[in-house]
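User: I'm putting together notes for a lab meeting next week and I want to include a structural view of one of the chains we've been expressing. I don't have a solved structure, so I'd like a prediction I can at least talk through. The sequence is below, exactly as it appears in our construct file.
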Amino acid sequence: MVRGGKMLSDILPKRVEVGFHFEPFRSPLKFGAVVMEGLTYCTVEVEVEDGRGRTARGNGSMPLADMWAFPSPKVPHELRESAMREVALRFARKVEGYGRRAHPVDIFLELEDELAQIGRDVSREMGLAEELPFLALLVSASAVDAALHDAFGKVNGICSYDGYGKDFMEHDLGYYLGEEFRGKYIGDYLRSRYLSELPVFHLVGGLDVLRKGEVPEDAPQDGLPNSLEEWVERDGLFCLKVKLRGKDLEWDVRRTLEVAEVAREVRRRMGWDDRLYLSVDTNEQCESPEYMVEYLKKVEEKDPRTYEEILYLEQPTERDLSLHRWDMRKLSSLKPVVIDESLATLDDYRLARQLGWSGVALKTCKCHSSALLFVCLAEEEGVPYTVQDLTLYGTALVHSVGFAARIRTMMGVESNGCQYHRREAFPEVRRLHPGVMERREGKVRTDSIGEVGLGFRIE
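Assistant: Thanks for the context. Below is the predicted structure for the 459-residue chain, given as structure tokens.
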């Protein structure tokens, strides 16, 4: 007998199938101290049943980016990825055996402690020299969580984002976030429909060539650009995320100014407005916030315009906020500073706010359910937030863009999957969601995202 499910819209997970496939990159991506040459995607299909006995299937997809989620020098890449695969499989079995009807957000939150236990078990059984961090567990579980939200919308015949109000949720936000949210629901903080288009941030990786004339002879000859100059010209880019070293101030300042110079040159040559929007990311490589204070000072001295066009800074220092408990107030008084790798739990959010971080970087790879709650916290407190990428492509990218289009980000959404994935990757998604998978006039379009579930079109 099925337990629970006070709402007829609540879902019972009946079947969860998990698969994995590797997608090699056309060119390597360097961020922080890491060089990534491909990604293993976790793909999930779930079947659910609602309180009326109706069934539907939902889908989710997410790369198991251990290089980002679990960058341990003590555990080799192959073992880290294998551990994350095992976590995904065990979490899927846990969801499959959930045994009662509930809203997807409740399923995720009720199983969050068990996800942590799965991580401890896998770490012990595989003899990992360092335990899987909770961030890696979220990435491992995120495709399952996404598939549940997709199926929830489909079985109820609604857009999943319309299922986060009192008509579909047993609990208000007070149940999840505290008394100050009593009587409020997730849906209160979302847009009522998808934005038709969003500005898109292009990633300038640490190894990326800036000018066409500097492209090496061995660069991929696949019809895609091999330099920032060519990408700006082809895609009309005006939002750029610049990866910095965080340990070489002269290089970081010079790189930022060169990126801005190249982009402006192209836009002027094409007859476009040369206004840029920049973000910079050291991927936690700075020893202290003072490095970025000095960086901003030097950028402003050399090029006040580029300084003005820097929208925000992303995760300058280590992900463990409690390690040094850096005071970010001086830095955040100059530019907004958002946490990314540090943000895995509600406690992380609260500590970051105490330490003076300005805002948060949201990613669907940290689980859709969790991201929704962070949106509510940020909106309620007037905290700026962004939607960042994990070099997503295919259905995973459609999910991320759709999420960004239903909330109020500081500026658009990051999408760099087309830069590094091979042109032949995910052909069916490219055909069904061309406006998401291809960037034009510096934007992505959402017109292909459907009105049921999370809007994936899968044939």
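A couple of points you could mention at the meeting. Residues 347 and 353 are 10 Å apart (CA to CA). The chain has 17 helices and 14 strands.

User: Perfect, that's what I needed.
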